[in-house]
């Protein structure tokens, strides 16, 4: 089969298209003939060697295609080996494309619990773009934060796949959503997509500006920080608010004012990609028509994965980048 193979760690140029053997048959696993594979920032970290993937290796977490044994159109949940405890993943948990060969290929093999029927009405690109960001946002906003109708939500870092999905999911849950963004264009795109408003997190005083545009100027009920700015994000919370953190691509350390934190009665919630149960909850929202379609910024042929990575790292896109077979 054709695949994009990581033969060394480094920049986008290390992603090479070549022929490799098809995945072997295993009891309890299914093979999917992929039609589309979506990119995630996680793929960049795998490419850079941050997860110690074995070499040579096929990266890629997100995908949609046709189940070979049944002919069913499916989407793939990238959470492997979650385990029986819904509160947190088992020690064996990993993300598809970390160590198990991923979706930058014509075929992929995954545990049977990690496939679900492709939502009706979604294109292959949209279906492939849904699972990782969708289940991650569902776990963050529903399972962890318990976001409720009428609450206010601030999303840090509008433009990427997580942020655009969180905006859609927040609206589906009946929340009022605001954003921070790195550029006026991204903020304006988020507002056009349904956000109430936004501020630029390139401004030094952005937490104060964000608080000023929150309901009654008290701060937000929930803040979703997928980039690692939560040492400052917490300053835009209302007293008793919840800060949900799930990423660190901007910063991997945060300085906190401890007294301000506990006097503010804040909750700090760490979260990861979701479980099979979270995935079922997400797909139920999609089936009921409550969740808008994933935003596709651009598509590339599978063989052009290196160029797709360059676009992803440029940070200029709004929405998901997808590889098509």
Kindly name the structural category.
alpha/beta
**Overall pLDDT, averaged?**
93
DSSP strand tally: 17
Number of helices: 10
Distance N to C terminus:
12 Å
What's the CATH topology name of the largest domain? Quinone Oxidoreductase, Chain A, domain 1
Q: Which CATH class of the largest domain is shown?
A: Alpha Beta
Portion of residues in beta strands equals: 25-35%
- Give the second-level CATH assignment, the architecture of the largest domain: Alpha-Beta Complex
**Weakly predicted, low-confidence segments:** none
Radius of gyration: 19 Å
What can be said about the biggest beta sheet?
A: 7 strands, mixed
- What percentage of residues falls in helices of 4 or more residues? 25-40%
The CATH superfamily title of the largest domain: Medium-chain alcohol dehydrogenases, catalytic domain
Summed up, the domain count is 2
The shape, in one word, is globular
């Amino acid at each position: 089969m054709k695949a994009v193979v990581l033969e060394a760690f480094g920049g986008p140029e290390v992603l090479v298209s070549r022929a490799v053997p098809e995945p072997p048959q295993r009891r309890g696993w299914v093979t999917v003939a992929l039609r589309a594979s979506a990119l995630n920032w996680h793929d960049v970290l795998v490419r850079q060697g941050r997860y110690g993937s074995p070499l040579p290796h096929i990266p890629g977490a997100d995908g949609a295609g046709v189940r070979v044994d049944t002919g069913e159109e499916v989407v793939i949940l990238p959470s492997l080996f979650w385990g029986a405890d819904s509160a947190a993943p088992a020690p064996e948990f990993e993300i598809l494309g970390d160590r198990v060969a991923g979706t930058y290929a014509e075929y992929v093999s995954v545990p049977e619990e990690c496939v679900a029927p492709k939502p009706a009405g979604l294109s292959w690109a949209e279906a492939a773009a849904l699972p990782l960001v969708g289940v991650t946002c569902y776990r963050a906003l529903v399972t962890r934060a318990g976001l409720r109708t009428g609450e206010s939500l601030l999303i840090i870092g509008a433009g990427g796949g997580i942020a655009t999905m969180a905006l859609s999911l927040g609206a589906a849950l009946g929340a009022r959503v605001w954003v921070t963004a790195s550029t006026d264009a991204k903020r304006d795109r988020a507002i056009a997509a349904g956000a109430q408003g936004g501020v630029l997190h390139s401004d030094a005083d952005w937490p104060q500006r964000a608080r000023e545009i929150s309901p009654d100027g008290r701060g937000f009920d929930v803040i979703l920080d997928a980039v690692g700015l939560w040492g400052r994000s917490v300053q835009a919370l209302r007293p008793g608010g919840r800060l949900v953190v799930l990423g660190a691509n901007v910063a991997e350390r945060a300085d906190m004012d401890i007294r301000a934190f506990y006097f503010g009665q804040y909750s700090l919630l760490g979260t990861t990609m979701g479980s099979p149960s979270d995935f079922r909850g997400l797909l139920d929202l999609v089936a009921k028509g409550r969740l808008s379609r994933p935003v596709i910024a651009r598509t590339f042929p599978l063989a052009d994965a290196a160029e797709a990575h360059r676009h992803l790292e440029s940070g200029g896109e709004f929405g998901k980048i997808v590889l098509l077979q």
